[in-house]
Amino acid sequence: MEAIWILLTLFVLIMLAGVYGAVRAVRAAKRGIDRTVHQARVTVEETRLRARQLAQPGAAGELAQLRLSLRGSMRATGQALQAAAPQDRSLSESLGLFQRLSSHALDLEADLKRLEQEPDRSRLAALLPEMRERTQRITHSADSLRWAVQERTHRMAHDDLDSLGREIEMEAGALRHWTAVEPDEPSAAPETGARPGPGVGARSGPEAGARPGAGAGQEPEPPRPSLGTRPNTEPQAWQKPWQKSPRPENTA
User: Fold this and answer.
1) Exposure winner among 43, 109, 208, 251, fewest CB in 10 A?
2) What is the model's pTM?
């Protein structure tokens, strides 16, 4: 029973998700169609105004020119603000000003459109200077706002490019600054005043007490009699007579 309820709940959720997706798709399609229809109407209207500007000289042609300049300036400014606003949050106030300016532009657009249907040419000629002045003021404000936004965007891009260039130069310098591998330290040399080891500068045995110059320019010492040899008791030529050795007592 619980499995049936779980399956039923899943089915209902899937149906609701499908309906929600279908509604979103229909709304998106409707917005796309509305946008396409609006762009088509704008294109047709501007084409008609260009044709009237060329075909009808005088007040009617000037009205068409005023409408074209107003439309072009406001559209270019709106596109510049919409493109720069996501990257620069400080343009929120500029967007608010543009909305206020757009309301004045729409009012002027409606007035210019009504004047196109004015049959009295004298009245149209009398109101045309005022329409021209209003159009110039609105287009000048829109152009100033658009140029300021463009200059700000270009300046920010230039500053970002300069900062990026400095960071790249620093990184390139760090990549080129490699440290050479130092050779291993040589083994410590023996100290100059180190004591010599055994057998260096010292001799053992009979040579230990020999003087440095014993073998150069001196006669060698006479050999000492060994224990098994008889001492020479004969008087030497250099001995005195009273220094002769006494004879032993046991001699006959």
Assistant:
1) 251
2) 0.57
The pLDDT confidence band at residue 138, using thresholds 50, 70 and 90, is very high
Residue-wise pLDDT for 144-165, tens only, equals 999 999 999 889 888 889 999 9
Amino acid at 193: G
The type of residue at 220 is P
Q: What is the 3-state secondary structure (H, E, C) of the chain?
A: CHHHHHHHHHHHHHHHHHHHHHHHHHHHHHHHHHHHHHHHHHHHHHHHHHHHHHHCCCHHHHHHHHHHHHHHHHHHHHHHHHHHCCCCHHHHHHHHHHHHHHHHHHHHHHHHHHHHCCCCHHHHHHHHHHHHHHHHHHHHHHHHHHHHHHHHHHHHHHHHHHHHHHHHHHHHHHHHCCCCCCCCCCCCCCCCCCCCCCCCCCCCHHHHHCCCCCCCCCCCCCCCCCCCCCCCCCCCCCCCHHHCCCCCCCCC
